[in-house]
């Protein structure tokens, strides 16, 4: 099934185009905070992200790759385009619902690479609840066992430990206008967040 060319563009920017050297590999751009990359995503995909955060692009949900593109838009591009603002997290609830749907139907297992699957699971890790953290650990553990890609599971363990300890991510407190406890402040001083 073909997908919306805009959804394919999201996937190509994030994972590399099929057949390119970066396709099916872990990309450094995922983990580096670079203003130029954030600005490029905002310029190219800002309007699409606004549409997705407003509940649009429902037709993308008709395929597993379209659903993944929507998850990447809502869960990843939002963090790049709206870094250090509450809008960075505005798509999280919908991204989590889409991720749950992919897992429930087994469509996550039909995604083209371990890295595609990993980003389908990322909304579980980003959610500030222990049930989502347990699911994150399960999914990333399974991914590690099946593919040998372990870095995502290691990150999931770190994130679950923070939610288990604080019930939320302390590094979001300032952005979301939440009070920071002394214990959270001490953790932030040592770790700085993710």
TrEMBL record:
<dbReference type="InterPro" id="IPR011990">
    <property type="entry name" value="TPR-like_helical_dom_sf"/>
</dbReference>
<dbReference type="Pfam" id="PF06041">
    <property type="entry name" value="DUF924"/>
</dbReference>
<protein>
    <submittedName>
        <fullName>Membrane protein</fullName>
    </submittedName>
</protein>
<dbReference type="InterPro" id="IPR010323">
    <property type="entry name" value="DUF924"/>
</dbReference>
């Amino acid at each position: 099934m073909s997908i919306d060319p805009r959804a394919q563009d999201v996937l190509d920017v994030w994972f590399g185009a099929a057949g390119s050297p970066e396709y099916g590999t872990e990309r450094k751009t995922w983990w580096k905070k670079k203003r130029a990359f954030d600005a490029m995503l905002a310029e190219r995909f800002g309007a699409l992200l606004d549409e997705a955060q407003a509940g649009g692009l429902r037709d993308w949900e008709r395929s597993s790759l379209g659903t993944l593109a929507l998850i990447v838009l809502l869960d990843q591009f939002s963090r790049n385009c709206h870094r250090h603002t509450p809008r960075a997290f505005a798509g999280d609830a919908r991204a989590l619902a889409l991720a749950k749907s992919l897992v429930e139907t087994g469509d996550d297992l039909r995604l083209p690479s371990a890295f595609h699957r990993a980003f389908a699971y990322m909304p579980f890790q980003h959610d500030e609840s222990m049930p989502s953290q347990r699911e994150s650990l399960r999914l990333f553990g399974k991914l590690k066992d099946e593919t040998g890609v372990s870095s995502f599971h290691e990150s999931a363990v770190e994130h679950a430990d923070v939610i288990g300890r604080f019930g939320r991510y302390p590094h979001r407190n300032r952005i979301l206008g939440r009070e920071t406890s002394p214990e959270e402040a001490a953790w932030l001083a040592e770790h700085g967040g993710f």
